[in-house]
Amino acid sequence: MSGNETSPLLRAATDDEDSLHNQVDATESSPLLSSNTATPRYDGDQDGPDRAERSSITTRLRNLLSPSSSEKKSMRWASGVAIALLSGAIIAIVILAFILPDMVQEYAQQAAVIEPTNLSLDSITPTGVRARIQANFHLDGSRVENEHVRRLGKAATWVAHQLGTEETEVVVYLPEYDNVLLGSAVIPPLVINLRDGDTTKFDFVAEIKPGNLDGVRTIANEWLDGRLKSLRLQGKADLSLRSGLIPLANKIPAVPKYNITRLNVADGPINGSMVADVSLSAFNTYPVQLDIPELAFDILLPGCAPDDLILVADAVTSEVRVEPQSEVHVDATGVIRELPESLTSACPDSSSSPLDMLLKSFMDGDPATLFVRGSKRPDADTPKWVAELLSSVTLPVPFPGRSLDGLIRNFSLTDVHFTMPDPFAEPGDPDADPKVSGTILVTAGVPSQMNFGINVTNVRARADVLYKTQKMGELNLREWQHANSTRVESKNGDEATLRIESRIEDAPLNVTDSDVFSDVLQALLFGDKAVKLDIDAAVDIEVVTGLGTLVVKDVPAQGKIPVKPLPKGSLGSIAPKVNTLKVLDTTPNTMTLQAIVNVTNPTSYTAHIPYANIHILHNDTTIGDVSVENLDVVNEVNDHVVITATWNPSMGGEKGQQIGRDLISQYLSGYNTTLTVKAHRKSIPGQPVLCEALSRFNATFSTPRLGGLPGDEPGEGESHFIRDATFHLLSSTATFTLVSPLEHNTVYLDFVNATALYNHSEPVGRILYDLPFAAPPGRSRTPRLPVNWSVGSVGYDAVLGALGGKLRLDAFAHINVRLGNWRESLWYRGRGIGASVKL
């Protein structure tokens, strides 16, 4: 094309159509079609020798552009083709200039496959590292989802075939983090195959320098927190290639899993310090090879606040050799010099310290999170940039927990002493529960990793008491109980054990299930084997170590408390022996009595009873109750036990009153009588569950006999109210020796209707007397009572025959007695009463 921009787009043509387009000059301001008269000449002369030729060309061009009617149809097709070609050229220019580069870039981003085969650390420099990088690179068009992008990309890279670069410095930015500088690397000359499927093998050493450490720290922390799923890098280089976004990886690798292969904690060389020796192993799944020098780290524990970390130890790692696709072993030594106060002090609004929460997580078997941070006091050989980077990154390290189930091998309770509830305690008060005292013996296993001095000084516990897997109650040691411990070294490779002994005093025992407690009582009363109660406890232990005093809370403990059943036949030995009986108060129908008795405790357990009340029954009918206060039950014989009893047969209604009369009558007559004691719902105030269980059982005892009095012959009527009689024949009277069961009260007999019998059936005589007379405490003589003899009877003859001597008579009487305000009509039947006969 020759001409200038002021030439017309179309001018007169020659006869040679092939030269037409080579001779057209136009200007942008010229008309698209011009006449021959308007077209300027190049020589400025319109009448030259070529005028005719130019006129002919113009005419022919006009004829082409303004065809005859016969040619108009074909000329329209030519115009359409020209316009289509022109439009296609414009579109192609747009695709090649604008769309194709973006599509090729998209193709490269999706098709690029980089397979690292080895990454090894050549050396650490003061400014960075020298790393040897080995990798395979190829383009895989099948990874491109868009079909058009895939086709254009394959075509473009097939044409380009290879891309060569010179040594250049690549600077990498993080576009999603305000384009912070990640680092830079010097890359040697490379030749890259771009055709689909061709593989390029890289093997070069690059100088890598860290960029903005704040940016590195941000990325590292997000990765450690598990929040970094993918990462985009923007690389810029001094190449004739436009820079673009290059994906580093579709998936960011996670922190490798590791195993703790050795852990040993021992007392340190400095008093008050401890040393921890740890070995870790992890499998390196990546093609990375490097040597890590010795590094120093700070070990931190979480504090009360989420972002509060407490420095507790310094640690140093050994040199580590990392090989591709192989196991990596790391040895570390940590030194704990003291426990900071912030670690052992309770957090605000909490009763637990950070150490308590860490130990609880550990003992629950859950990973306890520690934090590792590069030391701010690194080794002198550590490059400054490495120390600065490590000290700015904090790595959370899950420390595998260890369930302490089974740590306590044995838990037992001996020398048991029970204390019944305080009747005046408010509900919910610890004094409202029964209490248990005894000696706790615990055998605990000492983990082999714990090779330091340890001494248990105090214990406390919360325990469930179970019988045959069912919960009976709760034992709660809220207060610290003094303890001492003895370490027993291991034998035959077993773990060492710690023998802990503690005396507990008044630990509340809350019975929560009356049915289970009833089963226990039944087994104790009627069984012949020891009853085994299971203990499921959470124990707090105060431990003194080289670092100071620690409190380990909620250590799980299981054990058994064997409870011996009552010896066979022992219920009979419980029967009390009345030493003193005293009436304290009376009403017309009731008496309040106080007795001092001796009771034998057949068990090996002792107890203190602040207050208890039980019902007295006879023939399954309640006739009174018995109360004790501040009673200390000791082993074997319990002397001088003071009990208070209320005689009130009306508690059993009319039937009870009759049963009460008969019971006293039988007792005074020397019959073998029994009394039954049974707990009721209010036996122990504030303990309805315990009382419910106790009320299902009763105990029946023989009624205590009246003791003999001075002057009695052995076995002579010791159980009779009437000990002997004297008959006076001439005066037809009789006197009797009475023995009252009361030592402090006088009983009055207001009416007597008695008959004496010989040989159990032959009448001797009858006494009818309605004047009151007294029966004072102990032995007494009645006044002379008139006798109406049965003259002529066999009985009377027997009396006459015994004049001046003795004989045995029976007696049956109805008597009215009075004691204070209490009155009752009784009967009396005596057998074998020794009777003297006098004139």
From TrEMBL:
Taxon lineage: Eukaryota, Fungi, Dikarya, Ascomycota, Pezizomycotina
Tag1-like fifth Ig-like domain mapped to chain residues: 716-827
Domain Tag1-like fourth Ig-like: 576-688
Region annotated Disordered, chain positions: 1-57
Transmembrane spans: 77-100
GO CC, any one term: fungal-type vacuole membrane
Compositionally biased residues, Polar residues: 21-39
Domain Tag1 C-terminal: 450-564
Basic and acidic residues bias locations: 42-54
Domain of life: Eukaryota
Pfam families: LEA-2_1, LEA-2_4, LEA-2L_5, Tag1_C
Keywords, sorted A to Z: Membrane, Transmembrane, Transmembrane helix
Annotated InterPro entries: Ig_Tag1-like_4th (IPR059065), Ig_Tag1-like_5th (IPR059066), Tag1 (IPR046368), Tag1_C (IPR055011)
Protein name: Pre-rRNA processing protein
